[in-house]
Amino acid sequence: MFYKKVALYLCLFFSATACLAQQADTLSISLENVKYPYPVKYFSIHTEGQDLNMAYMDVAPVGKANGKTVVLLHGKNFGGYYWGSTIKALTDRGFRVLVPDQVGFGRSSKPYIHYSFHQLARWNKRLLDTLGIQKANILGHSMGGMLATRFALMYPENTEKLLLENPIGLEDYRNFVPYVSTDQQYQTELKATAESVKKYYQSSYFTVWKPEYDELVRIAAGMTKSADFPRLARVNAMTYTMIYEQPVVQEFVNVRVPTVLFIGKEDKTIVGKGLLSPDQQALHGQYRFLGKQTAAKIPGAKIVEFEGCGHIPHIEVPTEFNVALLGSL
């Protein structure tokens, strides 16, 4: 009888431990249990009959302010949490830094709406207006680069400089990536696991994997275990469609603000890459060429390139990136 009780207690103990471990690995799709580098505030938006929240960090300069603002726009698989070292480098030099989580991402609402870069740009402009910021340097990474470009096209008078860090959309994916519907992409998004997320991050984002990158995987993978993950998967599919259907590449020639591109030369990002054969993949997503080609399209644009660096220079080579960024500002 004694041994049966001990076995029962051990069974309950290990079950509870496993449950706690699973809870620790599970993250809310609104990332309330993810630590952001600075306090998060919320901006209210009403659209398509829905009341939404747009999360953002508004970080004051350290020491003497220089009167300038930098807006950091995140990539598709991220939120403002991955900008920590960039924010510190900028605020240490007197910049005010604004870091929004776009609607559908990070700590912002995850609504079922029509997603468009025009609408996202308009909401960012409203946020700037609300905070009394008349002009800002707009830095966009990856998908944020497409948004930053759209913002500069819509609001050139409010854009001091356009800063693009390995932006996607340097090619028109519609020309060579097969079309998939939002519903089809939703089914693909639902299949995401911790293992598939890490494999994708290792193969797509960095040239050499480092242990500190595991935190990015933990955040993305943790949301796949949430009971609300199907909602996030649907939103992810909607924003995939937005990227595919709303290119900015044809409009680079219309940019009329000072522009700098920051390009990790080993980046080979293609939106919809898994739909292509290896031979097709080799023909596209070559940032060592795309960066220069894009800079040539934008009047007066400059380019800074990073050797041995992939899709996220501000994380993979933070010192070099911050030096280049501050020099460009």
From TrEMBL:
GO molecular function: hydrolase activity
Signal peptide start-end: 1-21
UniProt KW Signal keyword: yes
Listed Pfam families: Abhydrolase_1
Sequence ranges assigned to domain AB hydrolase-1 in this UniProt record: 69-316
The UniProt record lists the keyword Hydrolase: yes
Keywords: Hydrolase, Signal
Name recorded for this polypeptide: Alpha/beta fold hydrolase
Organism encoding this protein: Pedobacter gandavensis
Lineage: Bacteria, Pseudomonadati, Bacteroidota, Sphingobacteriia, Sphingobacteriales
